[in-house]
């Protein structure tokens, strides 16, 4: 199973959440960790350094992609000419892959320096990912990690302005190459949607849009607690929320009880 973190926003991190995630990793048979962007709050050197140290401390293979907070906001020169320099210094390629016992995972960089929050998927990326999915082992669950979600419900205030351009075209291609799910953050709210039903993609299986909340940051939205997802090989998803009294992450169903 996969631990799906997002929106760590180092620079605004909670030490209690970090400790609870380390404990969770020690207590569960996880195959890897994926982080769907916004590793930092302002793309500063020490924020990337602290995030790297935290992820290394989990002692698991991990895959990360950049978020819109991982390129400079106020340093205009760097934002235009070298937006990903610090990210690449600590994490290397922005579109890496990770293969585990049950999963084949691809990272996709949806961040563009010309957009503040909205993402973009290029035709070149669509074709490249499509080829990788088709060549992936047939017995592995195929997942993609990107920062922005590919779907937001009609009543969500963010709307389509926070979904990547050309996302629908990408979905129509990738869903026929075995894609089973996309892992996102950005909205700081946990959710799961079947894009095959919503967009009528014509795939022979569900294609899930899996949203994660913020795992470690004080930047909480709508009063929601810190949270993360656990994803199983059959694409079942469990949402865990931080219990400040217990100082640990608790399964959503256990909170309801």
TrEMBL record:
The portions of this protein that span the membrane are none
**Which parts form a coiled-coil structure per UniProt?**
none
Q: Does the entry feature the keyword Metal-binding, yes or no?
A: yes
Where's the Calcineurin-like phosphoesterase domain?
2-189
Q: Which UniProt keywords apply?
A: Hydrolase, Iron, Metal-binding
Q: Care to name a GO molecular-function term for this sequence?
A: metal ion binding
Keyword Iron attributed = yes
Give the InterPro entries listed for this entry.
Calcineurin-like_PHP, CNP_phosphodiesterase-III, Metallo-depent_PP-like
Q: Which family does it belong to?
A: Belongs to the cyclic nucleotide phosphodiesterase class-III family.
* Protein known as: Cyclic 3',5'-adenosine monophosphate phosphodiesterase
**Which organism was this protein described from?**
Acinetobacter bouvetii
Source organism phylogeny: Bacteria, Pseudomonadati, Pseudomonadota, Gammaproteobacteria, Moraxellales
């Amino acid at each position: 199973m996969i631990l799906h973190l997002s929106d760590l926003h180092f620079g605004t991190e909670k030490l209690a959440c970090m400790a609870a995630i380390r404990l969770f990793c020690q207590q569960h048979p996880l195959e890897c960790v994926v982080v769907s962007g916004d590793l930092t709050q302002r793309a500063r050197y020490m924020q990337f350094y602290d995030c790297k140290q935290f992820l290394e401390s989990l002692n698991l293979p991990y895959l990360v992609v950049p978020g819109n907070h991982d390129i400079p906001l106020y340093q205009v020169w760097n934002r235009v000419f070298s937006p990903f320099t610090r990210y690449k210094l600590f994490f290397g390629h922005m579109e890496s892959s990770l293969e585990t016992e049950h999963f084949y995972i691809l990272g996709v960089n949806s961040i563009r320096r010309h957009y503040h929050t909205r993402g973009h998927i290029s035709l070149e990326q669509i074709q490249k990912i499509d080829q990788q999915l088709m060549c992936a082992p047939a017995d592995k669950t195929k997942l993609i990690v990107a920062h922005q979600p590919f779907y937001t419900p009609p009543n969500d205030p963010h709307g389509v302005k926070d979904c990547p351009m050309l996302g629908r075209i990408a979905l129509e291609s990738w869903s026929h190459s075995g894609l089973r799910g996309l892992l996102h953050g950005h909205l700081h709210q946990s959710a799961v949607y079947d894009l095959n039903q919503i967009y009528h993609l014509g795939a022979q299986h569900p294609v899930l849009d899996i949203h994660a909340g913020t795992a470690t940051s004080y930047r909480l939205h709508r009063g929601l607690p810190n949270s993360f997802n656990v994803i199983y090989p059959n694409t079942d998803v469990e949402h865990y929320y931080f219990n400040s009294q217990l100082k640990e992450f608790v399964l959503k169903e256990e909170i309801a009880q």
